[in-house]
Amino acid sequence: MSGAILGYQPLEKPSEWPLVADGVRMVAAATSDSVPYPVPKVMLALSGLAMYAERVGIARDPLAWLAPEVMTRYLLARTKLEGSSVQTYRSILLRIREALLWLEYGQQPTPRMSANRQRATPYTPPELARYLMWARTLPPTSTLGGSALSLLALGGSCGLAHREVLATRGTDITVLPSEAVVVAVPG
């Protein structure tokens, strides 16, 4: 690990690298055991941030580089990074910051936030019965009845993911004579 840290050189050989190299290596060595990323990724993200901070005139202090607003400005300036790469860089830098703050000040890491991965609970049988009565009382000459039944089927937990619901159109939904609803999700 120490060989990867000491031997790291950015590909472009920017003029800022010699100015920040010792600080980057020090932070990487101090935090590499606490960060769940391989050393080359840590060095790539951290060196890029440090060189950006040097270019824009931020103090040569790792805690100044790792300030949330500096990280955000750096990631916005990296126009070639897209999608999940931006999130990966952000995650690496945040984990480095947390580890460094723990080492320097004993500050606890920020709690991890996660999305609720459970599906929405389906309607209860009484709720479904009430909505079905409402849908059946809509005027038969309008398309409202069909739309209401379709929405009821989607809301009644057809098991569609949110992307599938968004991709579904009225023409993808068929109400059979038995009042069963068939949803053919595009793609």
How would you describe this protein?
- The longest helix has 22 residues, at 84-105.
- By secondary structure, the protein is mainly alpha-helical.
- The chain has a two-stranded antiparallel ribbon.
- The radius of gyration is 27 Å and the shape is elongated.
- The model has no long low-confidence stretch (mean pLDDT 79).
- Helix 3 (39-55) crosses helix 6 (84-105).
- The chain has nine helices and two strands.
Task: Please supply descriptive tags for the structure shown above.
single chain; 187 residues; mainly alpha; 9 helices; 2 strands; elongated
Tell me the number of helical segments per DSSP (H or I, 4 or more residues long): 9
Quote the beta fraction.
under 5%
Structural class of the secondary elements?
Answer: mainly alpha
C-alpha-based Rg, rounded:
27 Å
- Element order: H for helix, E for strand: HHHHHHHHHEE
Share of helical residues:
55-70%
Short summary:
With 187 residues, this protein is mainly alpha-helical. It has helices at residues 2-6, 17-31, 39-55, 62-65, 68-77, 84-105, 125-136, 144-155, 162-167; strands at 173-175, 181-183. Helix 2 (17-31) crosses helix 6 (84-105).
